[in-house]
Amino acid sequence: MNSENGSKLYIFGITLVATLGGLLFGYDTAVISGAVDSLKTFFHLDTATFGDAATFYHGVTVSSALIGCIIGSVLSGLFASYLGRKKSLFVASLLFLISSLGAAFPEFLFFTKGDGSINVLVAFNIYRIIGGIGVGLASAICPMYIAEIAPANIRGKLVSWNQFAIIFGMLVVYFVNYFITKGEPTEWISATGWRYMFASNAVPAAMFGMLLFLVPETPRYLALAGQDQKALKILTKINGSKIAKSILEDIKETAHHVKVEKVLTYGWTVLIIGILLSVFQQAVGINVVLYYAPTIFKSLLGAGSEGAAMSQTVINDAAMYQTVIMGFVNIIFTLVAIFTVDKFGRKPLLIIGSIGMAIGMFAISGLAFYKVIGVSTLIFIIIYSASFMMSWGPICWVLISEIFPNTIRGKAVAIAVAAQWIANFIVSATFPALEHFSMSFTYSLYGVMSILSIIFVWKLVPETKGKTLEEMQKLWKKG
Question: What structural domains does the chain harbor?
Fold first, then answer.
């Protein structure tokens, strides 16, 4: 290790462990995509059982983890402030582990295996909510942890790796779901296959918990907690002895405010910008594409005379395969953001991404209106998804992790991320009903949100490229 200039290997190693929380975030939220139809069959979520409310119950079951995400994100500020960033992530890893095994076997202890009654459905959703609390904690604290560890000149890149991990987790679970269901009849998938999907999450959850023992607490949390020597030791390893002391002094300058500053000390503007960043990231409809990707592809493949000639097993395999392809596209364009965010800045990428998303959604809306279903639809889904992944996907998390001053970061991030999960739940839970009403209207609505996001970024969001976290306090004090 270079004591004068710091160790890049050390910071990259810490970031790698922290991004496992992002991987679990992606894995846990996307695992449901392969089980959407299976859960509907296993729990009898049809009109014969639930009448006109069947679509609503199905949407809530698919989205139930998001209730936990809201709870976890709301609690993240308290956890981050009182337990610290590292211990909070360890709690998240335990919740991931409990949820993955519980959702796979919801009948465990209290019910008979294979029971698809309403009571088992409730148990399943409780386990999914527990996992959601883990996701909520990880979604707020992982980027916060990385931002507080990272040097200012590469902070955007390192925090963006968390989004890469989220998308990579989704890609991994798409592969897992594909190999679990490949060649298997729909009956087996509906009875047993979906269990393997959820249980597979236990492996990365256990790995994350063990690796957390190898990483330090963030120097900014340690300094705010009065542990200056520990903070200086970590800052020296990361930044080198030349500037570690000056960074610590900058942190300590803000530390004396931490007991007295409230979340609105810097006014409403910064908090509203953080909330709207979160809301727009979800209102553009990305999680509709991510959660329902296999279902959307199945409907595309099953349309027309060619689709009618395919067996359901072939359609299932092809849909999962197309989902994997989309996962690779997402990975590639997330890398575009990672390697450009600290060069081009946050705002330009957000605006370019919003333009691409608007084009994709309005095109899909037009195709749906004229009932044109085929390769063109798939192309515009990929254009939309790629545009999101090189912009709003990673950049939103970068801004949320860095835009707030040190002294209110824990509470403010919790509020912003809670708003994100509330918006996520609303968008995801209402999609089945909106799609039933009008696919064209639904996708055009997401297109309108993409246009509004351009105006929001252009008018209100400040550029934070290259600024230290301590400079955020000066930025908002001036405002």
Answer: 8-215+257-478 (1.20.1250.20)
